[in-house]
Amino acid sequence: MTDNELKTYFQENNDLLKTLINKVNLLVEENNITKKKTKKTKDPNAPKGARGPWILFSSTNKNKYQKKYPDSSYQEIVKKMSTDWNNLNSSKKAKYQEAAKKDKLRYENEMKQYNKKHNLEKSQEVKPKRVSKSKARLVESEESSEQYSLDELELSE
User: Fold this and answer.
1) pTM of the complete model
2) Torsions phi, psi for 46 (to 5 deg)
3) How confident is the model over 97-125, as pLDDT tens digits?
């Protein structure tokens, strides 16, 4: 093929491609097909999620580690905290696990209030994460209406 023949071939195929794209766009518009699903935005007034034991440990001890290792980067500090967390004895870990259970109860109570306040139907109801039946029994037996802040959870060492 000569250069002129190649140019005409690509121009013809380019025109064909443009017409196909236009037809697809028309079909999309006619059938109300969206290209991307929009992400559901979270209500800023919704309760904050429950914090786990590791999060409580790291948030209560972060300043202590930053003072202890002032020249370390954030990643290095987190590595040191995680090794200390893994080496923590079970009695000290239990303190954080109890605090996490209390925080979970706080979250579930706030979610119940939030769902009632916004009159959400069962299908629309914002639900907390699923819990196994054995853990649900534990939560039900320990359930209280108290709310806890990080200071009230008595985690400082």
Assistant:
1) 0.54
2) -70, 150
3) 999 999 999 999 998 888 888 876 555 55
